[in-house]
């Protein structure tokens, strides 16, 4: 152990003799490890945000969008064609086993006003069960009722952003809210949810009975989408398949035609977003890997230069009793020390960059400790792999020839 400590001290002194060169040699490792930490932090943060946003949809939710039909070679996309009806929603509630809640949905945007204040916001038409489905509690008041849905009532529930814009410093409950000149009474204020995965403010919303939205505001007879909640995660897949078969039957879609609707479970939605973010993570990981390899090549290059510069020193050391493996170990320790210090600095730089992105850009980041350990190990492995050849070359020098070297 004393011998190893002595060799380590000698290696450290050799590195400190050329501080600038040592730092420049470590720079590739620093950039590579910092890139790895930043990439992983961004990836984990994005994944956690996606999972949080998917969870905010509610538990065991299946979403059905109108559209996604191909006609004449043109793909119309989700929500672009009014192909879903209230009868479809009622059939799903009545005929699909394992379904607990169904909420027909229509969407629009409109200028809303109260007194002298006005605000452009999103209008959602939903059922009374929508708030339970999405686990979205009220901080004030209550939601509208099934009676409001049946009678196309003029009750409205608003998000925190709308409340702040239209009723600053006031109690919104019982206030009149005009949507396209139709008056609605504010009966509840939703708990804040923040921004969703698309960067939209979920609290910038007015929710009214879907019948009111269809009859009083939009004058439509079709739905944009249907939200369905299953009783447990185990029935999501089978319920999704049954919904597809039921809607194909109701819409009289033959086997040679595409669906005019799209059915997605929470797991499928999360998987699609994770696949997109995974592609970006892999790209950044590739860049980080290249940086580590470049850093390793830099270490090998500098260590070879160091062997050449210290040939006479190696000869003296071997002539006074140092063995080949001692010389090899010394240069290997130098290489590992370079990469390990570079790795630690890279970790600090990566964590700092991640925190900076969160602070300045509000990007979600999450740095797992396991990847910090992996980064340290990777940098040490780079030092061993790329430092082995120069160390072996130094250990194979002939003492006599080394002493004669000028």
Write the layout of secondary structure elements.
Blueprint lengths: L1 H15 L2 H38 L4 E6 L3 E2 L2 E2 L10 H10 L3 E16 L2 E10 L3 H4 L4 E4 L4 H5 L4 E4 L1 H7 L9 E4 L2 E9 L14 E5 H9 L6 E6 L5 H15 L10 E5 H44 L1 H9 L4 H38 L7 H27 L3 H6 L2
Parallel strand pairs: 5-10, 7-9
Antiparallel strand pairs: 1-11, 1-12, 2-3, 4-5, 4-8, 4-11, 6-9, 7-10, 8-9
Helix pairs in contact: 1-11, 2-9, 2-11, 2-12, 9-11, 9-12, 11-12
How would you explain this protein's 3D organization?
The protein has 406 residues and is of the alpha+beta class. It is 56% helix and 18% strand. It has a six-stranded mixed β-barrel with strand order 4-5-10-7-9-8. A two-stranded antiparallel ribbon has the order 2-3. β8 and β9 form a beta hairpin. α9 packs across α11 and α9 runs parallel beside α12. The two termini are 34 Å apart. About 2% of the residues have low confidence.
How much is the radius of gyration in Å? 33 Å
- Provide the spatial order of strands within the biggest beta sheet: 4-5-10-7-9-8
Are there runs of 5+ residues with pLDDT below 50, and where?
Answer: 69-76
From the helix content, strand content and strand pairing, which structural class follows?
Answer: alpha+beta
What is the approximate shape?
elongated
Distance between the termini: 34 Å
Supply the key terms.
406 residues; alpha+beta; 2 domains; six-stranded mixed barrel; two-stranded antiparallel ribbon; 13 helices; 12 strands
């Amino acid at each position: 152990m004393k011998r190893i400590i002595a060799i380590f001290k000698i290696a450290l002194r050799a590195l400190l003799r050329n501080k600038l060169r040592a730092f420049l040699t470590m720079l590739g490792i620093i950039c590579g490890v910092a890139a790895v930490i930043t990439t992983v932090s961004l990836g984990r943060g994005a994944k956690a945000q996606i999972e949080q946003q998917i969870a905010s949809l509610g538990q065991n939710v299946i979403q059905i969008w109108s559209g996604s039909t191909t006609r004449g070679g043109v793909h119309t996309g989700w929500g672009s064609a009014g192909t879903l009806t209230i009868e479809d929603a009622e059939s799903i509630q009545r005929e699909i086993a394992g379904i607990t809640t169904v909420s027909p949905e229509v969407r629009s945007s409109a200028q809303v006003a109260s007194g002298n204040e006005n605000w452009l916001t999103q209008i959602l038409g939903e059922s009374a069960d929508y708030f339970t489905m999405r686990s979205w509690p009220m901080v004030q008041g209550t939601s509208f009722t099934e009676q409001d849905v049946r009678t196309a009532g003029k009750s409205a529930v608003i998000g925190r952003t709308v409340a702040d814009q239209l009723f600053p410093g006031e109690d919104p409950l019982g206030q009149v809210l005009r949507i396209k000149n139709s008056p609605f009474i504010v009966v509840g204020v939703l708990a804040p949810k923040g921004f969703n995965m698309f960067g939209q403010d979920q609290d910038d919303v007015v929710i009214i009975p879907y019948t009111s939205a269809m009859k009083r505001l939009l004058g439509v007879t079709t739905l944009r989408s249907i939200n369905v909640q299953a009783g447990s995660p185990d029935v999501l897949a089978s319920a999704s398949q049954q919904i597809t078969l039921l809607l194909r039957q109701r819409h009289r879609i033959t086997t040679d035609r595409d669906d005019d609707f799209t059915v997605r479970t929470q797991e499928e939605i999360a998987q699609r977003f994770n696949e997109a973010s995974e592609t970006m993570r892999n790209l950044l990981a590739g860049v980080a890997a290249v940086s580590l390899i470049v850093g390793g090549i830099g270490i090998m290059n500098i260590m070879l230069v160091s062997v050449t510069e210290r040939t006479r020193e190696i000869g003296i050391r071997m002539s006074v009793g140092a063995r080949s493996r001692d010389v090899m170990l010394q240069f290997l320790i130098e290489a590992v020390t370079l990469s390990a210090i570079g790795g630690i600095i890279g970790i600090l730089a990566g964590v700092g960059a991640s925190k900076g992105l969160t602070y300045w850009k509000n990007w979600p980041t999450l740095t797992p400790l396991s990847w910090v350990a992996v980064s340290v190990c990777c940098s040490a492995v780079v030092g061993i792999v790329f430092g082995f050849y120069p160390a072996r070359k130094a250990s194979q020098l002939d003492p006599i020839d080394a002493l004669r070297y000028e």
